[in-house]
Structure formats: structure tokens, C-alpha cells
């Protein structure tokens, strides 16, 4: 059987993480791994999470199955954070998933079950797993440019022109905030124009909200998503708590389905539960239970908000420091979230890794959280020289 299989190339980012780990140079800088890091280079466990886990240890009296819908208390607690005034709307139902990735895969399978001819429109560059997840469900991908790396500007006219050619029932995958990998988010006015277009052409948005709270703030980062929901009849939302609760290993996510009516939403939700059952039967509970405790407890929720605010402030301060260091990094100061994309060639990126121990993805994506007060000046100096060598200002 297995002799019929072809060897698959290793994931490039995982390979980069391994190469960094094995590099003995003390001055090495890791800008590849996509997790938050504090100024000391650590990825800490939230104090609010620790407190919730202690409470779970003391009070949880069973590890029995919860069912394919997962932790219902988690779903009830997360909905207001994501949906705001729309929480409780009978047209929107949510199911817990193993991380935001699980939500995206479940969304893709639901789309395929509803209309296998529906195409998924995706701005590029995007998170590298977006297209494979859609294709694995048998869906066709159509692309348009999201960002021009050379100018660090959103190609909004190209986006609008592409979506005006989309067919009714096509799906448009949109980053809710803190765009990965570019950090370039739509403005409120652009969100409004996109929402109007989606509604007019009867396109279905698939909103990926993976970094809420790490851009402009918890409410602000959900504003674009809510603008879209105010205009359209149908939508899918893939949500992740892995980043804004620091629960990377626990894989805590949600898929929300918005129907044209409560009855239609319930039909879609029944399909979601069937698909979830055949994928993972039921999602892991520990992280979801911890999030539910935090959001339902005023003191824990306040602690979590303070920690989240501190994370956002650190990210913003790194971006501000980069922008102040050199005009070449001015755009990074305007962008949001953990990631940005440098306009460097693959050859230059390889040279920076080999000669300077600066590790970043081959696309030029950097995780700004890998920069600390100790290594940021050297990073700026080396990348400024690399840009000059490529003839870039």
C-alpha cells in the first residue's frame, strides 16, 4: 500500500523552526515562529488561564464526552466577544472546533456540502494554510492581490474588481484583523465598501478572526466583521482563542454559521455537527473550559483583558520602534498584529539566515514579536543593508 505514496516536502516553516533551534550562534534572531513573545523572548501562560486551570482541577468532576458541539458554556461565553450586539441572534449558531484551523476546515466542508461549485476568493499573500484547507475539501480557489510588498499598500482596487467578477454564492475569505502575513488591514471605509459589495452580489463571507485584541483592541478588531454581518444574509466565521488567550497547545476555536433565518441556521448547524462528528467526533475540552471560566468570572475576565492589552501594547511598541529607526520600516508602524512582510528576495532572506543568523520565512514574513530591545537594533542594521544591496530605499 504505502509504496504507492509519493514523498511530501516538509513544511517550510516547521523546517525553519528546526534550523533555528539547531543553530548554535548566540546572536540568532527568530522571526519565523508565529507565536507571541514578550520582551524576554518567552511565550508565557496567562495568569488568568493559570487561575482558571486551578479552578478546573479543583472543581471539575468528570471527563465524560461532551458531544460534537463541544463545550456549550464556551460557545455562550465567546459569542458576545466576537459578535457583540448580534450575540443571541437565532440566525447565528456556533460550534467549538480544534483551533481556528479546525473551524476553517469545517467551514470548507460545509461549503462543499452546500454547493461544490462555489469558488473561494482569496487575497494573496495569505496564511499559507488557507488555500490547502479549501482545496482539501474539493473547492476551487480564485485569487487577487491583497498587498503590494514593494509599496506595502493594500491593492484595494484590485480586490474590488476581482469580487465584482465573482458569481452569486461564491465565498470570499477575509481576515478579520491583524492580517497574516502582511499586517495590512482594511480601513473602516473599505470594510463598508466590501460589505456592500458582498451583499449586492450575494457573495458569502468566510471571516477568519484569529487575532482579536492584538491589533487596535478587542471591540475595534471585531468592527469589520460586524460591519459585514450587518449587511449580508449568510456568513461563516472561523474564530481562534489560541492567540488572544495564549492557548496554542490547547487548540481552542469556534465556527459560527449565519443563516438567512433561524430555521436555515439550524439546518446548516445540523450539517456542521455531522461533519464535525466525522472529522474529530468532538473537540478537546480543557482550553475551552478555561476560556469559559475566564469570560464568565468578572475578576478573571479583567485580568485577561489586562494581559491582552499588555500584549497589544508590546506589539505596537515594537512596530513604533521599527518605524522610528528607519524610513524603510515606516509601513510596519501603520500595520497591525504580529506579522508583516518585508520586500526581500528569497536569496537575500537565505543570506541573512546564513550570514547573520536572522531567521524569517522565505516569503519575507516576519513575526515582530521575535524582536526584543536586545536584538532590534542589529535587525534594523542588517535589513537596512540588505534592502540597500537590492537597490530598495
Notable traits:
single chain, 393 residues, alpha/beta, Aspartate Aminotransferase, domain 1, Aspartate Aminotransferase, domain 2, 2 domains, seven-stranded mixed sheet, two-stranded parallel sheet, 46% helix, 15% strand, globular
Summarize this, please?
By secondary structure, the chain is an alpha/beta fold. The protein has 15 helices and 13 strands.
Reported CATH architecture of the largest domain: 3-Layer(aba) Sandwich
Instruction: Tell me the distance between the termini.
Output: 55 Å
CATH superfamily of the largest domain: Type I PLP-dependent aspartate aminotransferase-like (Major domain)
What order do the helices and strands follow? HEHHEHEHEEEHEHEHHEEHHHHEHEEH
Q: Biggest sheet, in brief?
A: 7 strands, mixed
- Tell me the CATH topology of the largest domain: Aspartate Aminotransferase, domain 2
Could you walk me through the main structural features you see in this protein, from its secondary elements to its overall organization?
With 393 residues, the chain is α/β, with parallel strands linked by helices. The protein has 2 domains: 2-45 and 300-389, Aspartate Aminotransferase, domain 1 (Alpha-Beta Complex), CATH 3.90.1150.10; 49-298, Type I PLP-dependent aspartate aminotransferase-like (Major domain) (Aspartate Aminotransferase, domain 2, 3-Layer(aba) Sandwich). It has 15 helices and 13 strands. It has helices at 12-22, 47-59, 72-83, 99-114, 130-136, 156-164, 188-201, 218-221, 223-231, 262-279, 286-296, 298-325, 330-334, 346-356, 376-389; strands at 29-30, 92-98, 119-124, 140-145, 147-148, 153-154, 171-175, 204-209, 235-240, 252-258, 339-341, 358-359, 365-367. The N and C termini lie far apart (55 Å). The model has no long low-confidence stretch (mean pLDDT 94).
